[in-house]
Each structure stands twice: as structure tokens, then as C-alpha cells.
Amino acid sequence: MPKTKNSFLTFLHYAAVGGLGTAVHYVVLYVLVEAFQVSPVGASAVGALCGAGVNYLLNRHLTFKSEVSHRKAAPRFFLVAGLAALVNTFLMWVLVRQWGLPYMLAQLLVTAMLMVMTYLLNKRWTFREQEVLP
Length: 134
Fold this sequence. Notes:
Elements: H1 7-36, H2 40-63, H3 70-98, H4 103-126
Helix pairs in contact: 1-2, 2-3, 3-4
């Protein structure tokens, strides 16, 4: 469990440090789309994975102050990040290709939803000191 006293403050911290990973995600997305004419859906998937690496270290050390070994936490974190990348890619496809939303608006909506989902998974599973399952 996080060593901070208040879950709401932990969430705010998660959101704040996640901003850096999100910035990496968005810069990669923008550069790939605008400079290399990569599809927004594919570019978003690559950006999400780049941002995940930044977020692992920041969340492990700063947000959750976890002492769970990297051997346990890293695979869990990247499984959550991989799931988030799949959900991100699917929702971007729906919002951009099917609904016709501008790609940056679509990405903002998807990011907000995924922030809540990944916070809960990382707090309750990835960086949790005690095992959830027997």
C-alpha cells in the first residue's frame, strides 16, 4: 500500500507525475503524426508505451514509495501499461476513425479515462506490498 496518508493526495500525486509521462506520450504522438505522417492510432500506441517507461520509475519511487521488488512490480506495471495501451489504441480507433473526432481531443478523453483505470490497478495490485491473491 502507498505510504502516503491520504488516497486522494496519492491520486493527485499520481496525476501530477503522470503528467510527465503523458507529455512524453503526446510529444511522440504529435511528432510521429506531423513529421512522419504516421497514423494517429499507431502513433498514439507508440507514445503510450514511451510514456509508460517514464511513469514506472516516477510512480514506484515518488507516488507509491513502493518497496515491492522490481522483479514483481515492473512486470505488473508493464502489464497494466500494455492493457492501457490496448484500450488506448482501441478507443482512439473508435473516436478518430469511427466518430471522426480530432485526434488530440480524442486523446485527451482517452487519457482521462485511462488515468483513473491505471491508478486503481497500480495502487491495488502493481505496487501493493501484500499479495492480493493467495
